[in-house]
Inverse folding.
């Protein structure tokens, strides 16, 4: 009999396997994407030299930008190959860790989860966001982004959980741990993909 845990491992492992197999191509497609506007919106909410967790760092693009600006950055990703390539990019070890394994408590001023938690189903997303709330310092900030829409399931070899404003508000109502600082839609910044829309969020933990 197939258990929920088995199903969970399957969808997570299939997605991580995609990134392990396609790590170099993924990094080359995202490494130089113009993302400074989003980064600056996030950084303006943080104190100088803040501690940041890059949660699903991918190519390491954003970790590198934060490090160059003097922030204290820790980066993790669930894909071993992406961790290897990102470590080379930022000159610092990237820890291989699944989102569900986050165990930090009151450690980070900000958590940056750019186009990463979109690979979690709703049950796991809710559980992981509770872990993020625990890992943030009081009044800490989370940036996260999702492909815009209602679809949930596999496409292009990965599991995606698309998001709308209404869907996110319902999730936050269940969680009761974050308040919305900013929620906005943007177009994909990668060349030739501007028709793809994203939902971006700045969320502040309610704990004091």
């Amino acid at each position: 009999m197939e258990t929920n845990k088995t199903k969970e491992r399957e969808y997570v492992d299939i997605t991580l396997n995609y990134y392990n197999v396609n790590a170099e191509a993924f990094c080359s497609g995202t490494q130089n994407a113009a993302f400074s506007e989003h980064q600056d919106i996030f950084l303006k909410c943080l104190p100088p030299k803040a501690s940041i967790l890059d949660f699903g760092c991918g190519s390491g693009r954003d970790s590198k930008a934060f490090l160059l600006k003097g922030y204290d950055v820790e980066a993790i990703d669930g894909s071993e190959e992406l961790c290897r390539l990102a470590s080379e990019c930022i000159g610092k070890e990237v820890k291989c860790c699944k989102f569900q394994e986050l165990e930090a408590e009151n450690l980070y001023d900000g958590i940056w989860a750019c186009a990463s938690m979109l690979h979690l189903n709703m049950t796991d997303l809710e559980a992981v966001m509770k872990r993020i709330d625990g890992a943030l310092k009081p009044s800490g900030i989370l940036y996260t982004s999702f492909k815009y829409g209602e679809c949930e399931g596999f496409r292009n070899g990965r599991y995606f959980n698309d998001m709308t404003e209404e869907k996110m508000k319902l999730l936050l109502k269940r969680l009761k741990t974050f308040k919305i600082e900013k929620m906005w839609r943007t177009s994909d910044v990668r060349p030739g993909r501007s028709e793809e829309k994203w939902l971006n969020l700045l969320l502040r933990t309610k704990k004091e």
Summary: The chain is about 40% helix and 30% strand. Confidence is low (pLDDT under 50) at residues 1-6.
